[in-house]
Design brief:
- By secondary structure, this protein is mainly α.
- The protein has one domain.
- It is built from 5 helices and no strands.
- Helix 1 packs antiparallel against helix 3, helix 2 crosses helix 3 and helix 4 runs antiparallel to helix 5.
- The radius of gyration is 17 Å and the shape is globular.
């Protein structure tokens, strides 16, 4: 037996675009902020003991900016959403794992929530207002 098909709700394409923009904004802002302070960001990466902090810095800035912009544009949306979801999960585990600290607790679960939203985008696509359609 196959599941019944349903048509999208009115306005769902506009909602999908708004959701993509809102999800992507934090990554673009964070990536731009990191790009303007490489020494500070590399120092923070070093503080948690990651190897090759300069490489991690470059990869982080690239993922946040490129995947964030792709998500807004709706270009290779599923790939961008999966990359950002993975980034959220990895950064939660590495940088926000001190759950006894209230701020880190909130940041950890914020990252999980963002990953959940991004997985929805990966599962259901960008909607009609997207370059990749």
């Amino acid at each position: 037996m196959t599941a019944p098909t349903t048509s999208p709700a009115p306005g769902s394409d506009a909602l999908a675009l708004a959701g993509r923009v809102l999800l992507a904004a934090i990554f673009i802002l964070a990536g731009a902020n990191k790009a303007t302070d490489p020494a500070g960001t590399i120092g923070y990466i070093q503080s948690v003991g990651l190897p090759l902090p300069e490489v991690a810095y470059g990869a982080t800035v690239a993922v946040e900016l490129i995947a964030g912009l792709a998500l807004i544009a709706g270009y290779r949306t599923r790939i961008a959403a999966l990359a950002l979801a993975g980034f959220c999960l990895v950064s939660a585990a590495i940088f926000h794992n001190q759950l006894g600290d209230q701020t880190q607790f909130v940041m950890f679960f914020k990252n999980l929530a963002m990953a959940g939203g991004l997985l929805f985008v990966a599962a259901f696509g960008p909607g009609r207002y997207a370059l990749g359609r």
